[in-house]
Amino acid sequence: MDVSGIQNPLDVTAAIKKLAREKKALILAHNYQIAEVQDIADHTGDSLELARIAAKNDADMIVFCGVYFMAESASILSPEKKVIIPDPEAGCPMADMVGPEDVMEMKAIHPDAQVVTYINSSAAVKACSDVICTSSNALKIVERIDADKIIFLPDKNLGSYVQRFTKKTIIPGKGFCPTHEKFTREDLIAVKRMHPDALVMVHPECRPEVVDMADKVFSTGQMVEFAARTGVKKIIVGTETGLIHKLSSVAPEIEFIPATGSFICPNMKKINLDVLHTSLIEEQTVVTVDPLVREGAGRALERMLELSY
Ligand code: SF4
Fold this sequence. Notes:
single chain; alpha/beta; four-stranded parallel beta sheet; 16 helices; binds iron/sulfur cluster
């Protein structure tokens, strides 16, 4: 609820901008946020891009419009800044599917393996990992890390996608993104039938049988880059529909078709302009990471930066 009582969306927008200026706050929005939040943000991008922007910026406060683990990553990379998330209930079900105890258990079963953890994970899981990866650098990290056996957490679909391109043994976690998992082969067949002339690009968090049918398999950042340079006229987008706002802004001449109407992450849609406004007024909710956890997670994130040169 907006505690200011402002009703007009234009007034809310102006009030957010004024408050952000006064408080030296930088507003970051993930590519899956609603259009109004993306439009008011200083930067939009994927979780790692945004965490890096937060670390390089000299703002006093970072307002992270995304899900909790993303705000945690920003806090890990810039511990001196006040990082706030407008809705602390905006979690990531995939990140919650694997806890630190699962990592320790898998390490005990496979003592010769190294742990590569997708950035979509809690700070506590990152802290027990050898290295972090993103969907765009996962294969590179797996290839460059000094081990033939890799415990890959938490996303079983991204793990299985990486396994297609490496001779190393991937031991996948049990996690998955419910939003991407819901998109089935049958859904893809149906949308392709309606748009036979469209190129299909999907995120590697999708099911393997969906990945099999796609023309391109891209991270969100790679989708945006591809859209900006391709001559293709029509693209079916196999990821959260919020990305279409960004894709349309970089390539307005392309027709982007959501792969299914249900490609919506409810957690990514918890933040709206009123929620953002209230969080700026109250400077809530502050995201902090325990110093010991931060040290371990920071080490694993640094390792990723070293290996993904
Ligand atoms: S889209 Fe999936 S991975 Fe991303 S925040 Fe939502 S549940 Fe988590």
